[in-house]
Design a protein that fits this description.
Shape: elongated
Number of strands: 6
Strand order of the largest sheet: 2-1-3-4
Order of helices and strands: EHEEHEEE
Radius of gyration: 15 Å
Distance between the termini: 13 Å
Largest sheet: 4 strands, mixed
Number of helices: 2
Helix content: 25-40%
Structural class: alpha/beta
């Protein structure tokens, strides 16, 4: 049940925003093996002057930052897979690979309140976190 925020430096049309959200979510489904219906992804569009970037980017308006908050337990290989999947899927949408930064932040299950206020460690998640 990752909670993901995608920060971008420009406005996109609704269809493009949906495509970006779907691309990142599909990468999570593939790499972290979460259920497809477990979709918790937000996209935030910033005014360019409010979102700094590496000054060497060829197309700074396309800089994209993806932050994934998730349960602890994924392997390094699953994380590597996630990074590749996100970059490949965003590249297909015209966002250059070197314009994407991804951060995975892990928390213990007891630090997540889900399904009516229960600690995630007390709930059958329906999927394996240790992939």
């Amino acid at each position: 049940m990752p909670s993901t925020v995608i920060d971008v430096r420009r406005r996109y049309c609704a269809d493009d925003e949906i495509a970006i959200i779907d691309a990142v979510h599909e990468a999570l489904v593939v790499a972290f093996q979460i259920p497809r219906a477990d979709k918790h992804v937000r996209l935030i569009s910033h005014e360019p002057h409010r979102f700094a970037h590496n000054p060497n980017l060829a197309q700074p308006e396309l800089y994209t930052f993806v932050a994934v908050d998730c349960f602890a337990g994924r392997s390094v290989q699953a994380k590597r897979s996630l990074y590749r999947e996100i970059v490949n899927r965003l590249s297909a949408l015209g966002i250059p690979a070197d314009h994407v930064t991804i951060v995975v932040r892990e928390s213990a299950l007891e630090n997540w309140g889900i399904r009516g206020g229960q600690a995630a460690c007390d709930v059958d998640l329906g999927f394996d976190v240790t992939v």
